[in-house]
């Protein structure tokens, strides 16, 4: 049975919820939650779907949520943003200085695990800053966003505009399994078109391993497009000449970095490049896939078809998580991710303040998980492995809690 606050929220109108947030006085939460409309085709956890389903007109509008956020939250500071870039590169420089000092000494085997973990973490932190550039929340200057975004993303082998374009599509369609770009549950007909090893990868969630992100950049996710490569300007991911020309520039920058790594391999040896760039790169890829997966996979969250989806309702299916003392090091990407999804123009350093304003209006629709990350990851893996395919024509899908096998 759902907690009373969740059940009651389902039976209150948007106007009542906004009134509660305005006066700060809880409503009388004694109404019974309504049942799902009879015409809906529902999959997954039916009880959760009945308690959490909202019609589109029962959800606060984006304008209502935006009015609650202090205006300064939408104003990026180029200098402040650049200071975070400097911080991350200083940290990486110190890590590489330590690697240089210990290389070939008895301390190397002790230092390397420390180096790998934190270098991979700061590669990931650079991705988060490039992510701000892609959303235009790093600076008000498009030129600054493009220069910094290309520099940071190319360093970690991401084609900036290619990623920016597909990530924009993800934000525009979050929670819509028919149109989202990544980690959506696949309709049976789409899943049936996936062949061989790829189907086994999806079904076992091994796409979350450290090679998952490079594979995604090369071939995309799912089976909707024949060519979904981020490294090809001719990819079906890009729909006009402007996008294709932008992608051509970003792919050229990607090749500059790839060529530099090839030269380093020729000059210093494959082992050196693998140890001091390859391992941190794979750790960063693991961070990216795990954090992104946990942002959008949680038992009880909902996926909709286009008819039952809207922007606010879909993006409120994102999940906030805190990664302890690491949260500040990767720029608070976990602690206010739902608000970021709703308002991607807010720079990362203003998101916590914005989230504090959004949560009262969103109420119980705003997802915050306080589970330990390893527990959450296990539950998300298990739930996804059991429910990554849904019946064609599903209107609403609620991710069920993982079930234990008889052996367990």
From TrEMBL:
Residue ranges of the TM segments: 114-131, 143-163, 200-218, 247-268, 274-294
Molecular function terms, GO-annotated: oxidoreductase activity
> What superkingdom does the record give?
Eukaryota
- Known Pfam families for this protein? FA_desaturase
- Domain Fatty acid desaturase intervals: 114-366
- Presence of the UniProt keyword Transmembrane in the record: yes
Provide the alphabetized UniProt keywords.
Answer: Membrane, Transmembrane, Transmembrane helix
Keyword set includes Transmembrane = yes
Cross-referenced InterPro entries: FA_desaturase_dom, Fatty_acid_desaturase
GO process terms (BP): lipid metabolic process
Could you tell me what this protein is called?
Fatty acid desaturase domain-containing protein
User: What species is this protein from?
Assistant: Porphyra umbilicalis (Purple laver)
């Amino acid at each position: 049975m759902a907690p009373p606050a969740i059940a009651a929220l389902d039976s209150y109108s948007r106007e009542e919820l906004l009134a509660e947030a305005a006066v700060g006085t809880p409503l009388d939460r004694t109404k019974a939650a309504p049942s799902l409309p009879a015409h809906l085709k529902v999959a997954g956890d039916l009880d959760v779907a009945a308690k959490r389903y909202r019609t589109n007109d029962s959800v606060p509008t984006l304008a209502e949520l935006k009015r609650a956020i202090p205006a300064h939250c939408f104003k990026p500071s180029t200098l402040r943003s650049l200071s975070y870039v400097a911080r991350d590169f200083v940290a990486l420089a110190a890590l590489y200085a330590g690697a240089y000092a210990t290389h070939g000494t008895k301390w190397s085997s002790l230092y390397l695990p420390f180096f790998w973990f934190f270098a991979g973490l700061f590669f990931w932190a650079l991705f988060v800053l490039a992510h701000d550039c892609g959303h235009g929340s790093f600076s008000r200057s498009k030129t600054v966003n493009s220069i910094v975004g290309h520099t940071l993303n190319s360093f970690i082998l991401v084609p900036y505009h290619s990623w920016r374009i597909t990530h924009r599509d993800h934000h525009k369609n979050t929670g819509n399994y028919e149109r989202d770009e990544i980690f959506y549950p696949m309709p049976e007909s789409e899943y049936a078109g996936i062949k061989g090893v790829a189907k086994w990868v999806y079904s076992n969630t091994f796409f979350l391993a450290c090679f998952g992100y490079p594979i995604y950049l090369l071939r995309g996710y799912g089976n909707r497009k024949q060519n979904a490569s981020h490294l090809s300007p001719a990819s079906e991911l890009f729909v006009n000449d402007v996008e294709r020309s932008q992608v051509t520039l970003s792919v050229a920058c990607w090749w500059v970095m790839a060529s530099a790594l090839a030269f380093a391999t020729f000059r210093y040896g494959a082992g050196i490049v693998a140890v001091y760039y390859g391992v941190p790169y794979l750790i960063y890829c693991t961070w990216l896939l795990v954090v992104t997966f946990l942002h959008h996979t949680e038992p009880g969250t909902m996926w909709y078809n286009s008819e039952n989806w809207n922007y606010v309702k879909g993006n409120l299916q994102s999940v906030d998580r805190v990664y302890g003392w690491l949260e500040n090091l990767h720029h608070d990407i976990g602690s206010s991710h739902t608000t970021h999804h709703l308002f991607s123009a807010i720079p990362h350093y203003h998101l916590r303040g914005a989230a504090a304003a959004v949560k009262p209006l969103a109420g119980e629709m705003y997802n915050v998980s306080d589970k330990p990350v390893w527990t959450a990851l296990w539950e998300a893996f298990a739930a996804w492995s059991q429910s990554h395919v849904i019946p064609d024509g599903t209107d609403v899908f609620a991710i069920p809690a993982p079930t234990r096998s008889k052996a367990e």
